[in-house]
Amino acid sequence: MTLRISTLAERPDLADTLWDMPNPWPEFMLNDLLAGLYYTVATSDFADHVLVAVDEDEPGTIVARAFAVPFERPDGDLPDGGWDTAVRWGTTTRRRGATPNAISALEITIREDLQGGGLSKQMLAAMRANAARLGFTELLAPVRPNQKHLEPRTPMAEYAFRTREDGLPYDAWLRVHVRAGAKIVKVAPRSMVVPGTLAEWREWTGLPFDRSGPVEVPRALAPVHVDLDQDHAVYVEPNVWVSHPL
Fold this sequence. Notes:
alpha+beta; five-stranded antiparallel beta sheet; 7 helices; 24% helix
């Protein structure tokens, strides 16, 4: 495969096919309430921050994509709201016409048949390079550890800082970030929030949702909180803030 990574601003012809690449995300994750603030305008308002990887042996075929959002960051610690807060800050910064002083990665997605081949490392490197090109000195990321779903009841504060004998993170995706030069900063305990009725959760997951209490859902990083009497369930996903000096 001959790979070329560009911004969407450089390849506006790919805007219409950006979403055609098969999406590996579980259905419930596509229902975060704040996601639409960014993704509905990503190809227009944030084209400089969207990366597309094309297989030049198959012209126009997108094999990976990545999204980042610039924002005006207030003083203080990184927000407990993680991904959701980054989206909200990015939206309000652009609407106010303010000058961003920070940038966060939001997503790197690899076509499913190419996962595990090192393409995510290339996309992360390209994201770092693009942030530096745009004048930022740090790339933040509310990372979704890709093995955490195997231990949904383990607190993220314990999981995020678990290491192997060589001192690198136990989690493979956190390990990619650290090897690329990132530092793990803190846990974002409510990085993404997905509420829904029980009928919606049944549709999203195929599970019965017939009892109140914590319910483990495949590929969720923590249990979903279910309340039968109130006819709703809420998923609060913890992520891990990392910082990449550029």
